[in-house]
Amino acid sequence: MFKRNLGFGRAAAALLLCMAGAWPAQAAFPERPVKLVVPYTPGGAADLLSRVLAERLSQELAQPVVVENKPGANTMIAATQVARAQPDGYTLFLASNASMVLNPMLYRKVSYDAQRDFRVLSVVAELPLVVVANNSVPASTLAQFVDYARARPGKLNYASVGIGNPLQLATELLKSRTGIDVAHIPYNGSAPALSSLMANDTQLMVDVVSTSLPLVREHKIKALAVTGAERLPVLPDVPTVAESGFAGFRAATWFGVAVPRDTPGAEADRLREAVAAVMRQADFRDRFQAQGLVIQAPRGQAEVDAYVAEDRERWKGVIQANAIRLD
């Protein structure tokens, strides 16, 4: 009897082992292509960043990462699409301070909630800005321009690419920190704004480095300061605003990777690690340096959350002080 029971136990154990071997193991994430939704048209700096990032992520994740351009409504069309996507880790969003910070504070109607609908996994790149001036202005430094403007309150103009645009908000932040009174003249794009600066219709502009840099190098306008925390390799002799006598000043647009908020933690961690691996690649950093894009050091989730929260507080004050609301 004992031997029969022993034999039965061995047979049952063997059957269980066979069943365990036949049961399919849970597939490692990701097991199919991943989509990166980009809220900009093809061809710009953000689009190029997304495509190179997607190519490198494909290698890290061992799955294709496909870029889908979805421009419109100042990034809100794409953001809304991703906010409503299945939170399974297969839909990524090229987030920015426009979509995650500014739009919810600027627009009366926004069809997504940046804080409830998204988790920003990584801040991949910062796009520092440069303070440029007309050549005829008798100032070669930001401090000199501030003195010149303070002596002429309300008589100078600054150009921007539109009300509520990050460039306009950065200029208003600069005005509040330096105490200058300079009138805002909005233009429909960087080209007419820079043309007005060269024609001396406006005397000051805060611009992205990539569009102003050629004009600075051709001595058609002059660079007074950069707005980031550090000097830029493409403008090594141009000090930061903080170095120019306004300690703590910092303003930059940024691009990162976000997913729907309810994306499971394991999938989110896998994606964050893959993005971090790409950001550590020296040739990835070097590729964008010439365009003024500063690839960031990888941050943990708590650091990313703190970065976005600080950015939100910075621009909240500017928007409220200037009562800027957009329809």
Features:
alpha/beta, Bug_dom1, globular, ABC transporter substrate-binding protein, signal, BUG, 10 strands, 327 residues, 44% helix, 12 helices
Can you offer a commentary on this structure?
By secondary structure, this protein is of the alpha/beta class. The chain is 44% helix and 19% strand. It has twelve helices and ten strands. Strands 1, 2, 3, 4, 5, 6, 7, 8, 9 and 10 form a ten-stranded mixed beta sheet that branches. α2 links the parallel β1 and β2. The radius of gyration is 25 Å and the shape is globular. The termini are far apart. 39% of the residues are buried. About 4% of the residues have low confidence.
State the low-pLDDT regions, or none: 14-25
Largest sheet: 10 strands, mixed
Beta-strand percentage? 15-25%
Order of helices and strands: HEHEHEHHEHEHEHEHEEHHEH
Number of strands: 10
Helical residue percent? Answer: 40-55%
Number of helices: 12
Q: How would you summarize what this structure contains?
A:
This is ABC transporter substrate-binding protein. With about 325 residues, this protein is α/β, with parallel strands linked by helices.
Topology overview:
Blueprint: H1 2-22, E1 34-38, H2 45-61, E2 65-69, H3 76-83, E3 91-96, H4 97-106, H5 114-117, E4 118-133, H6 142-150, E5 156-160, H7 166-178, E6 182-186, H8 190-198, E7 204-208, H9 209-217, E8 222-226, E9 252-260, H10 265-279, H11 282-289, E10 294-295, H12 301-321
Parallel strand pairs: 1-2, 1-3, 5-6, 5-7
Antiparallel strand pairs: 3-9, 4-7, 4-8, 4-9, 4-10
Pfam family, one: TctC
Organism: Achromobacter ruhlandii
Keywords: Signal
